[in-house]
């Protein structure tokens, strides 16, 4: 299958990791400035990551990153393009729709992943980026200390 063909040039790893680093930096930066109620997802991420062992978080993030990117970048983006695919991607992340900042971030991240695939020519770059973003954010949720 051409879609999942592993490129000989491993530069997609750098593009994926660099994109993930930028997304994580923006997400952490924004989360410091916006109030908690504006980024509330109803506790979903907390319930998913808080009590899981690290290996489980990594496995969960790998499966989710692979499957979501296969669906959105591998199938929908070919039919609808990166913009409409990102609208659909943001809409299925329904837990964020109550607040415009997380919804906008999810849309922007999805659009960036779509552009990343277009730029690198491989689905593996957005898969790597998606995995790393979810993994780092999951680890932060799992190991952060509760503030008094």
Radius of gyration: 15 Å
Query: What is the tally of helical segments?
Result: 5
Major sheet, described briefly? none
How much helix, percentage-wise, in residues? over 70%
Assign an overall shape.
Answer: globular
Structural class: mainly alpha
Tell how many strands the DSSP assignment holds.
Answer: 0
Q: Stretches where pLDDT falls below 50 for ≥5 residues?
A: none
Roughly how many Å apart are the termini? 52 Å
Order of helices and strands: HHHHH
**Overall pLDDT:** 90
Roughly what fraction of the amino acids lie in strands? under 5%
Q: Which oligomerization state do the chains in this entry correspond to?
A: single chain
Could you characterize what this model shows?
With 148 residues, this protein is mainly alpha-helical. It contains five helices and no strands. The protein has helices at 11-33, 44-49, 54-92, 100-120, 124-143. The protein is globular and about 45 Å long.
């Amino acid at each position: 299958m051409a879609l999942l063909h592993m490129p000989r040039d491993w530069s997609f790893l750098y593009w994926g990791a660099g994109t993930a680093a930028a997304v994580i930096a923006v997400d952490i930066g924004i989360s410091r400035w916006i109030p908690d109620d504006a980024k509330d997802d109803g506790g979903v991420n907390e319930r998913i990551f808080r009590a899981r062992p690290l290996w489980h978080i990594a496995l969960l993030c790998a499966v989710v990153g692979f499957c979501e990117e296969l669906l959105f970048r591998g199938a929908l983006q070919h039919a609808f393009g990166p913009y409409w695919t990102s609208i659909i991607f943001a809409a299925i992340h329904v837990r964020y729709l109550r607040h415009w900042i997380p919804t906008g971030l999810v849309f922007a991240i999805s659009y960036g992943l779509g552009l990343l695939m277009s730029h690198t020519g491989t689905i593996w770059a957005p898969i790597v980026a998606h995995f790393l973003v979810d993994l780092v954010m999951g680890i932060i949720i799992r190991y952060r200390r509760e503030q008094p």
